[in-house]
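Lab notebook: predicted structure, single chain.

Context: the supervisor wants predicted structures on file for every construct in the current expression panel, including those that have not yet been purified. This is the next one on the list. No modifications to the sequence; it matches the entry in the shared construct table.
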Amino acid sequence: MVDDIELANIKKTGAFRTTPGQFEGKQFVDNLGDAQKLQKKFSDFFGGNQTIVKGRAPQSVLDNASRTPFSDIPNGTAITVPKSGLPAIKPKF
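Prediction complete. Output recorded below exactly as produced.
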């Protein structure tokens, strides 16, 4: 799920990226239900549009990702992909 600025960047570059100076990886969720819950929570908190963008990642990227509880989603899990793995994830609109 991304805001309008990140969505424009993904459409322009065809890739997920991190925000310079902020994160060394990017967080994803693995199911639509959690993405929708997160979308609502972020829309309520930050305002503006929050768009769910599906991505396909090779198993090797997922194997190198960390999985941690995601406090913004009850019983949800954040999948954090290191910056180096992001070019392998293909956005789907």
